[in-house]
């Protein structure tokens, strides 16, 4: 035994909280992001996307994620991941809206295309941490506004967006995911970045 300037704790247990963090996605994260995406889609849209989801595998989507991570169209495109310890439990995908995408003159809008948390890891602050980190990056790139879409009737997501300062701007769109799926109606939410 060595002499330490502090007492040795015997039978101490680590705290009950997990280490959580957010960081930019890496190429090696593609499989984990795909796993989170499919788990969330299967939990959120089982009827609407039944046939589509029945055929999709993590490998099917991982290659697309790998490409998005390694070859973004610009430095303003962003993929962040949320971690609980070393496990990826969520992700955020954001990109600048181009002129002609309902962008008002003088506005610089970033579209939060995807903000997804694995269904077993919701309500632990991961979405808030991802969004806060993304807003910091958006501001650094000169964005004045953020926009995102939410499926009509997704009460949890709507509540989250409103609590984060987003408001319904009245825009609607219909997503058709192809044969064997039901159309999804989405509402657009926007927030000023101050």
UniProtKB/TrEMBL annotation:
InterPro entries: Acyl_CoA_acyltransferase, Bact_Acetyltransf, GNAT_dom. The keyword Transferase applies. One of its GO terms (molecular function) is acyltransferase activity, transferring groups other than amino-acyl groups. Residues 36-191 form the N-acetyltransferase domain. Keywords: Acyltransferase, Transferase. PROSITE patterns: GNAT. The keyword Transmembrane helix does not apply. This is Unannotated protein. It comes from freshwater metagenome.
């Amino acid at each position: 035994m060595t002499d330490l300037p502090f007492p040795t704790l015997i039978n101490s247990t680590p705290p009950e909280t997990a280490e959580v963090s957010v960081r930019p996605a890496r190429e090696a994260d593609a499989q984990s992001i795909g796993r989170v995406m499919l788990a969330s889609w299967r939990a959120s849209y089982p009827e609407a996307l039944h046939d589509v989801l029945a055929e999709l595998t993590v490998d099917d989507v991982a290659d697309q994620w790998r490409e998005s991570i390694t070859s973004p169209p610009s430095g303003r495109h962003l993929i962040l991941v949320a971690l609980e310890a070393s496990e990826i439990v969520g992700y955020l995908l954001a990109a600048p809206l181009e002129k002609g995408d309902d962008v008002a003159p003088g506005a610089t809008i970033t579209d939060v295309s995807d903000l997804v948390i694995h269904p077993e890891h919701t309500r632990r602050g991961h979405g808030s941490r991802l969004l806060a980190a993304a807003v910091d990056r958006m501001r650094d790139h000169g964005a004045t506004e953020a926009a995102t879409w939410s499926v009509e009737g997704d009460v949890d997501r709507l509540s989250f967006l409103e609590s984060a300062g987003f408001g319904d701007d009245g825009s609607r769109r219909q997503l058709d995911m192809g044969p064997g799926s039901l159309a999804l109606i989405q509402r657009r939410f926007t927030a000023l970045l101050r």
